[in-house]
Each structure stands twice: as C-alpha cells, then as structure tokens.
Amino acid sequence: MTEQDKTPVSNFIAAIIAADIKANKNNGKVMTRFPPEPNGYLHIGHAKSICLNFGLAKDFNGHCNLRFDDTNPTKEEQEYIDSIMEDVRWLGFDWQDRLYFASGYFEKFYEFALFLIRKGKAYVDSLSADEIREYRGTLTQAGKESPHRHRGVEENLDLFERMKAGEFPDGTHVLRAKIDMASGNLNMRDPVLYRILHAGHHRTGNAWCIYPMYDFAHGQSDSIEGITHSVCTLEFADHRPLYDWFIEELELDCHPQQIEFARLNLTYTIMSKRKLVRLVAGGYVKSWDDPRMPTISGLRRRGYTPESIRDFCDRIGVAKKDSTVDMALLEHCLREDLNKRALRFMAVLKPLKVVLENYPEGQVEELQAINNPEDPDAGSRKVPFSKELYIEQDDFMEDPPKKFFRLGPGREVRLRYGYFITCTDVIKDDATGEILELRCTYDPETRGGNAPDGRKVKATLHWVSARHALSAEVRLYSRLFTKENPADVELGEDFADHINPESLEVLRNCRVEPSLADVEPEGICQFERLGYFCADRHDCTQEKLVFNRSVTLRDQWAKIKKKT
Ligand code: ATP
Ligand code: MG
Fold first, then answer.
1. What residue owns the CA closest to ligand 1's atom 23?
2. What's the pLDDT band for 303 if we cut at 50, 70, 90?
3. Active-site residue 178, yes or no?
4. pLDDT score of 117
5. Ligand 1 in contact with 46 (CB < 6 A)?
6. Probe residue for ligand 1, chosen from 46, 87, 91 as the CB with the greatest number of ligand atoms within 8 Å
7. What would the pLDDT profile of 177-193 be if each residue is shown by its tens digit?
8. Least crowded by CB within 10 Å, which of 24, 151, 341, 389?
9. What is the mean pLDDT of residues 94-105?
10. Active site annotation includes 543
11. pLDDT tens across 312-348, in order?
C-alpha cells in the first residue's frame, strides 16, 4: 500500500479527494481553505467547517488557507478578524503563512470585471435596487431584461470607470453579468457583480467606492489561491453554476471543485452571526464570549476544551442532508474529556454552617484527598478539617421526605475523606425561621470514612472547613433558549421571545477549598458532586475567584425529560 492509500476516508468529501488523488487530478495536490466573512465571531458551526477543511488538508498532505471574505465594508470589523484568528488557533489549527483577504484581490477583481465587459459579458445597469428585484422574476416566472442590458462595450467601460472614480452616488448604477434572465436558477439572472458604496473598508481604507459582491469574489479568490477542493455548506449549491460560469468566462486556469456539505444545527441555540449579533447588541447576553453563547469564544470561556470541540466535530460527521444535533452530545464530549483530566476539589455553592460540638477547639487535621480517581498519576492533596465546616444547604432537610437520604435531625452521614457526623440540633433565626447552622457530633473512630463496627450511612457529602475555605463567585448556566429550535418562529414572533430568563444564576457567597488559591484563569476542575468548572478567563483573579460551571456531571435535562 502507498502512503496515500492508507489515508483514512472518514467522510464523502474525503472519498472524493482520495479518488481525485488516485486519478492524479491537480497533480495529486490538495489545497483547501476556511473562508469566514469577518462580520461576527465564529460559532460552533464554523468549528465544523474549520475541522473539516484543516482536517482534509492534513489527512491528504495538503494545505489549508485562512481567508477572510471581506467584501462588505459596512458589516465588517478588525475586532472580528482578530477574534477569528484567535479562535482558529485556539482550536488547534495553523494556517502558517497562508493568511489571505479577498480585499487583497480587489485590484484583480476589478480587472476581471473589465475583462467581462470587454467580452460583452457584463454591463452597467442603472435600474434602482427595487426595479432590479422586480425585473428578476420569480421561481415560476422568467425575469425581464433591463433596458440597459444592450449598452455597448465602450459605454459600459466608461460608466464602470466613472463608478470607480466616485462620480456617482450609492445605488445609482451597478455592474451586472450578462447571463440569462430566463434561467431556472435565479442566481444566473444577470447577477450584480459590483455596487457603489461610498464607505471606508477596514483594510483598504478609502481606496475604493465600488465593492464586488460576495459571489463575484468568493470563487475567484479560491481560483487565485489554487484551491483544489472548495468545500462549503449546502446553501451554496445553487451558486455553483454561477461560480463555474465566472471561472470559465474569465478563462482562469485554476477551476476549484466545489463540494457542499450540511451545516451544523444545534438544539436550543441559534447559529447565524446575523442573529448572534442581535443577542449581543440587544443586551440579551453580556458579550460575544458570554459563556451562554454558541460562539467558539463563548464555549471557551464556559470551559470547553479544543479537544472536546474537535471530538464533537468528529462524531457528528459530514453529511449531505441538513439535520439538527442534540446539545447533549456537545456536553457529553466535554464530560468525556474533562473526566479524564480535571482535578477534583470540594466547593460549597450555597453554604450551611455545621459546628461539630465534640471536635476539639482549635484542632486542624489534614485529610488526604484523591486528585483524580480516573488518573492514578494525578496524585493526592491535603484538605484541612476543623470544628466548623460548611456543607451544601441542599444536603440538609429538617423534615426529610422518604427518598431523601442526606442529612436531617438525628441522622448520620459521611463527610467525604472525613468522618461520620450526626445532626443533633438545628439553630434557626427566631424571627424568620431560616436555618442558620447545624450542631453535629462526629465519631472520631470513623476517620477516612468507615466505621469499625461496620455500620453504614446512606450519603456522603462534600464540605469545606469554614476557617480555611476561600470565597468565590460561581456562575451557573443553563440553556439560552427555552425552545428546541429558536430559529423556527411563528409569524409575528421573534427568536428573542424564546430566551430563557433563567439562563444565568450568579452565586456570590460560595466557599471553595484552599488548594484552589492559585488557580489560573481558564483552569479546569471538577467540584465534587456539582459538575465541571473553569476559572473565568477574564474575571478570575487571586483576589476574587470566579468560576463558570462548564457542564453538570450528568445530563440534567435527560432526567427531566424522563420525569415528564
Ligand atoms: P452565518 O450564517 O453564521 O453568518 P456564514 O455561512 O454566513 O454563517 P461565513 O463566515 O461565511 O458564515 O462562514 C465561513 C465558513 O463556515 C463557510 O464556508 C460556511 O459554509 C461555514 N459555516 C458557517 N456556518 C456553518 C455551520 N452552521 N455548519 C458548518 N459550516 C458552517
Ligand atoms: Mg456568509
């Protein structure tokens, strides 16, 4: 077997490429690209495209470019370019020195336009945008030719040059391809190639006041870069004949092969930059990297790892038909990854004080705790134990129902790595009845968590030593939307109507064990029984610990579904 025969053919696109290599198409070379428009931050759907394009290049010994398709100056910004580059790198991919911008080809596109005009394949149209739309016709009705369609080459050249020179206001003229106003494919009905836009561009400044349309830039950019396999999402299938027409009419040597795949949709979230920008601008979330956002930077801030996202992209595969993936799968991939790597700690989110009445005043014991039962190399640490502790409010009930096995008056439970304790008294606020603290006794014979007489307890609780614990803020997240497919809205509704008002819960009075004092921003950990957490990359400091819950230990939503 040759090296190439061994390349894993993991999806239908890889199969096409493998066959092309076998047939020595493109001299056996493979060149792909990831071509975002810098009009927003990348989301998890883009991660699928990034993994696919960079992955194909790697599997077939090719290269993958990063190219910004930046043809729309009014929607694009440097901030988006910077964030996109950061996200692609963070995901673990490297474009090396192959960073390109469609705006870097503006001069070439202009030459292409002149070439088409001279060939009689493009003309300047002076209809208004509304008229152009009206003349285009519909799926069932052929379009109508513009009265300007038969302008001569000289007149077109003159008008187009004057458009470029800035003689005309926005919207007065456009350059259109002369193809077929009766085509069954609306994209072929004399599409607009250039529009007048007196707007500064984030890279070319005020050099241009005419800008190419995305469709007149995308395919040619691929051709200029020698892209062999132009992988894109399904909605571009109808544009393929147009891209092919451009390459042929422009007589370009490199004719990339376009292959379409289904975009990723995820339940309970939206996946379009146009809508995500509204969540940010409308204040529904705090920022593009708000941990509730499906953006790559939001997932990162939430505590997702590049490994878990790449694993997710692997598992969902590449198909030719649109489908929606359950958010639970993404969470599952994160749990699998963190379970192997995250060190365990104890933290109490809603503290309830416990005083051990028979524990010696001033005594502190260092109890041995295992860092990660899944990883023998992770070792162990010491956790301080003393007379006053905190446990979770939820772990105590004054009048426990049948199925509640945790602490209650007169009951005995185990403290993880510590002792058996029994609740002897409940101290309450006289006025409100609120439980202030518990009085308990401990059994000194049960150190390490077992009773010499063999008696059993039904629950093991996590805890922290009151004197030693550190304060922390903990942010708990749940789904941003209450509807499974928030993009699918009824008439008169808006996707924003389905935002979950309880998607963020901030707990400011949490207590965590002292070994978390030096946690680095983005440090990941498991809080025993509570889930996986990460130190917030912007807000967590040595002075103020802030953790985000990345994911619960189990799929909480599955439980709820079963109940109902
Ligand atoms: P959006 O609608 O979110 O703005 P887009 O397609 O307009 O997405 P681009 O910046 O043009 O965003 O996308 C860059 C690349 O990522 C394109 O090749 C596009 O096909 C791909 N892509 C975008 N969204 C998804 C998705 N949900 N699943 C897979 N690939 C996607
Ligand atoms: Mg787009």
1. 46
2. very high
3. no
4. 98
5. yes
6. 46
7. 999 999 999 999 999 99
8. 24
9. 98
10. no
11. 999 999 999 988 999 999 999 999 999 999 999 999 9
Q: Is-contact 331 446, C-beta < 8 A?
A: no
Half-sphere exposure of 530 (CA within 13 A, CB side): 30
Alpha helices (runs of H) in 153-235, residue ranges in sequence order? 153-165, 214-224
Any ligand 1 atom below 6 A from CB of 242:
no
Ligand closest to the CA atom of residue 50: 1
Catalytic (active site) residue 414: no
Whether 347-462 and 4-261 are alike in CATH topology: the answer is no
Side-chain-side CA neighbours of 23 within 13 Å: the count stands at 8
The predicted pLDDT at position 496 comes to 83
Q: Whole-angstrom Cα distance, residue 527 to residue 524?
A: 10
Average of pLDDT values for 357-383? Answer: 97
The listed CATH number (2.40.240.10, 3.10.180.10, 3.40.50.300, 2.30.30.30) that belongs to domain 273-343+472-563: 2.40.240.10
* Ligand 1 centroid to residue 555 C-alpha, Å: 29
- Ranges of each domain in the chain: 4-261, 273-343+472-563, 347-462
Grade residue 564 by pLDDT with cuts at 50, 70 and 90. Answer: very low
Q: Is 35 touching ligand 1 by the criterion CB < 6 Å?
A: yes
Mean pLDDT for 526-538 is 98
Which residue puts its alpha carbon closest to atom 14 of ligand 1?
36
User: Which numeric CATH code is attached to 4-261?
Assistant: 3.40.50.620
Q: Residue range 363-370: average pLDDT?
A: 97
CB 23 within 8 A of CB 328: no
Q: Please report which residue ranges of 319-452 form alpha helices under DSSP H.
A: 327-341
For residue 335, what are its two tokens?
Answer: 């749990």
pLDDT at 333: 98
Which one-letter DSSP state was computed for residue 263? P
The pairs formed by 306-310 with CB atoms below 8 angstroms and a separation of 24 or more are 306/90, 306/91, 306/92, 307/337, 308/333, 308/334, 308/336, 308/337, 308/338, 309/44, 309/47, 309/91, 309/333, 310/47, 310/51, 310/91, 310/92
Q: Is 36 in the pocket of ligand 1 (CB under 6 A)?
A: yes
Is the Cβ atom of 177 under 6 angstroms away from ligand 1?
no
Listed residue (263, 256, 217, 219) closest to 103, CA to CA: 217
In this predicted structure, the answer to whether residue 153 has a pLDDT above a threshold of 70 is yes
Of the candidates 96, 75, 109, 83, the residue with the CA atom closest to the CA atom of residue 31: 96
Task: Tell me the CATH architecture of domain 347-462.
Answer: Beta Barrel (2.40)
pLDDT at 5 over 70: no
Ligand 1 close to Cβ of residue 264 (< 6 A): yes
Average pLDDT over residues 476-493: 88
Look at residue 174 and give its three-state secondary structure: strand
pLDDT at residue 323, rounded to an integer: 87
Out of 33, 164, 240, 273, pick the active-site residue: 273
Q: What is the CA radius of gyration of the chain?
A: 31
> How far is ligand 1, taken at its centre, from the CA of residue 285, in Å?
22
